[in-house]
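ok so i was messing around last nite and threw this chain in just to see what happens. nothing serious, just curious
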Amino acid sequence: MGLAPAPVVAERLHQPGPLTGCSTAPSRARIANGKGGFAYDGYQQQPTPAPFTTVAWRIVHTATAMSTRTSTFFRDSGDGPDVFDLVHWPADIPGTAADGIRFLEECYREWHDNIAALDDEGLARPLGRKGGFFAKEPMAALIVHINREVMHHGGEIGVLRDLYRATRASQSA
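result:
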């Protein structure tokens, strides 16, 4: 996907944010299902006002947008829980920049490969009960939504990376 900045820059971008109260990943917070390890701040929470989110948060959010849908609609072939159920969330959230980028690339590849294999009927089929309150929407609408998420947060990641580089360059000049 071409997201990887230089390793040192990537690791610095993955650390807690430049502003007090940033939502970030990794956090040692525990996910609502009780599993330990890394999670990302703000999971299933909607604080007001919404905090600034770090590059790490945006990477994890973008990756999980794809991985939860892949789990729901391509791995879980039965009449399992809907897309919003925690069972579809990854067991582990990456704790380093390199792992975060790898996680995003893996989630993208699996999502891409599954949607690329859909025929016209698969694209037109309603999401059904697994789609939650989007049950009547076709798979094509979900794909468009995920594309918007990837473009939106991918653009933010690029801007924050560029701002970080420009700020660092001007401070060392």
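not much to say yet. The chain has one domain: 7-12+56-172.
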